[in-house]
Amino acid sequence: MHEVEAKFRIADVESLVVALKAHGVELAAPAVQDDQAFAPVAWRYGDSKIGVPFARLRTEGGRHLFTVKVPGDNELSCEEHETEVADRDQMHAAVVAMGFAPTVRIVKTRRRGRWGEVDLCVDDVAGLGVFLELERLAPPGTSGLAAQAELVGMVTALGVEAARVEETYDSLLRAVG
Which Pfam families does this entry report, sorted A to Z (predicted)? Predict the structure, then answer.
């Protein structure tokens, strides 16, 4: 599957929630996600991410998900594969054995919603602040950049202060520290 995202830093989360509700979006109860990001051993921050596989182990509500993303048009337009795993520690060891190294731990409180065909998340990321993420699946052969432009238009229609961010949470966390 080809997942396309657009991400925005949010200054006023209450205004965002009101604007989403006005557009018919109801947010689910908050859930904590604990993500461990992985990169190929030879890859370093500052190197291009395009075409490079990155892995993630996520725990949420006692479930563990293993995901591999390969960025295409940019960091937020990726081929994605995901499956549930029974044992996070064993999967962590397997990912390392496959030639990946742990990079950044990302802990966030996420509230999910749906706006038409678009999944959205309001994320409070430890060490970074609050973000709005819009995600959709793009049909094969579709430009990730065109799909992202549509998502940006949706956020503009909300009429809230939202600064577009073109990096992933792991890159943002690495940059602060």
Answer: CYTH
